[in-house]
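Example (one chain per record):
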Amino acid sequence: MENYCDLHTHSVFSDGTDTPMRLIELAAEAGLSAVALCDHNTVAGLPDFLEAAKDSAVEAVPGVEISTDYADKELHILALFVQPQHYAAVTALLAEGDRRKEQSNIDLVAALNAAGYALSYEQIKAKTPRGHINRAHIAAEMLELGYVESVQAAFRTLLSPKHGLYHPPKRIDAYDAIRFIKSIGAVAVLALRGIKAPSYGALSELAGKILRAFDGGILILALEQDMAKALGQAFLDEMKKTTGFELISKTGNVALNDNYVGNNWAKMICFLVEMGYMSNPAEDVKLAEAEAKARELKGKVVQLTARGGENGKLYGSITNDQIAGALKAQHGIEVDRRKLEQEEPIRSAGQSFVTLKLYPGISSRMIVNVKVLTK
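Predicted structure:
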């Protein structure tokens, strides 16, 4: 008996139309053996998703689709088999990106209004379950108001970066995302829906860099469908030509499979490119060191004094050099000042929060207590 699954679905927690619970029901109705929930940049729907699968024959695969930057282009990477104990780390990794995405959406709607398209961001958000907005929701609102003929037309025109109204937010670096996904024991997969031939070269370059950077292989799953096989083979051919890696065997750098049964529980109706397939000892060491330093920094308070006025305002601001120096002097902990991020510039007396970025998905939040010297 052949088993089938869908490893790339979205729910109302991003731009999907169904709840996580309903996705399990739909998967069962379709006869799937497994389904993965990979909402855009959020794991908020995963607890409900896993709970709904407890009484179902369908296996729930927890995941997330991460928007990343690669060579100044947007590249989406799926993280599959994300375990509950890592949800907080995923959320922390994506928090800043979520804030930038929200501001990008607000700016886009403001630009559309200035161009003569009357839209209300608050109204769009109110219509969106869970309030997670992206361009698809804005496009749907434009369609409803008669400004565009289709959602696709909106993306080709007004919502395209080339049109000048939409400015993509800064996203997490693709390599950092891959490192993080590997660090939590999940599987990194390129989301290659709708890829066109001109993109093969760029993806091949990425594949070669990943092979070198992560001491790993890329697992290509090209199945019976002619289109999927052709695309998988085209990717392999271009990658070999670009990087010099040869398709030797399933234990070599690159593996071509036409049947995933035996490797896992499903026969896919797509092909996947897994990045960083093998373990990387060097990255494992970096991860362990970051986790150790995070434990060491937990609960630490840095005390600083600076000249200022009677009103508590400083003459200038506290620098990361000062914070790093005080941390070493007071607690014997040495950190890279370039990895310190002040939530707000420290320009007055009192407590402020500073985050030290130790490794993708691992950070430590510290308190900096400033006293003013008025004489």
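Caption: The CA atoms of residues 4 and 31 lie 8 Å apart.
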